[in-house]
Amino acid sequence: MEQLYPVQKAVADPLSIYDDLDLPAGNQERPFVAVNMVSTVDGKITLNKKERAEPLGSPVDRHLMKRLRVHFDAVLRGAETVRANPFFPGVPDELALRREQAGKEPQPLGIVVSRSLDLPLESQYFTVSPKPVILTAAASDPKRREIASQYARVEIAGEHEVDARQALQILARKYGVRRLLVEGGAALNYSFFKAGLIDTLFWTLAPKLSGFREDLTMIAGPALLVPVPKLRLETLYLHEDELFFRWSVADREQA
Ligand SMILES: NC(=O)c1ccc[n+]([C@@H]2O[C@H](COP(=O)([O-])OP(=O)(O)OC[C@H]3O[C@@H](n4cnc5c(N)ncnc54)[C@H](OP(=O)(O)O)[C@@H]3O)[C@@H](O)[C@H]2O)c1
Q: Who is most buried in 88, 113, 122, 232, counting CB within 10 A?
């Protein structure tokens, strides 16, 4: 057993903790995939989901969320998350410059997964350049696909649902995505964890409680993930009662 706190190594700038990450790149079959989430101590990723009340994480967490994006070619979100927050998950100007200096596009590619294609197409999320990508299933409504294709590049990746593995192959081969950041929510995370396609998990534990049974947890699907994914702690930082974990997923490719 190890005592992680108060064993201390001071970090001068809390916003810099992920600046020097050296994440592996994926390949033609699939990108390296990370998830970034924040939850309360009782494990909830929403606070009063119905009314979308208040942010969970601190300002430091929200800054780190943007700083993490610097390392990734694309940011993937579930449709419900985009409906709840219809804003492009990009980076501010100074980080866009840092991306360009590292040979990347100034902004990550926005990607949303949706079967219904009931998306806020007139929102800011869909006004950016390059156009976001919508990943959908063949069973989606062709008329809605046609309308959506005026706002985004629409890709079919699966019959009835979006198949995570097919989706990653399309992103790798057609869009050159080598590092993908998944930013939730619970249902989308489930699809990717179930397929054994998550390599690393960035998780902020916010010093708050929800208590509301209808609030969501980080991964929510119809059955237990089997085999149960095992996580290995990579780093842990503490800042003003908030904990910032990075775990790697030990058992990959378990579909
Ligand atoms: N605390 C955090 O870190 C954090 C992070 C992200 C989100 N959130 C919150 O989480 C909530 C949303 O989570 P959620 O679980 O309800 O929804 P979600 O995962 O964001 O989106 C679910 C929707 O995505 C589409 N989808 C997901 N997997 C799919 C698949 N395999 N095939 C086809 N479509 C698929 C479906 O869209 P259609 O319905 O369009 O078919 C589904 O209804 C929001 O309140 C958001 O603010 C919190």
A: 113
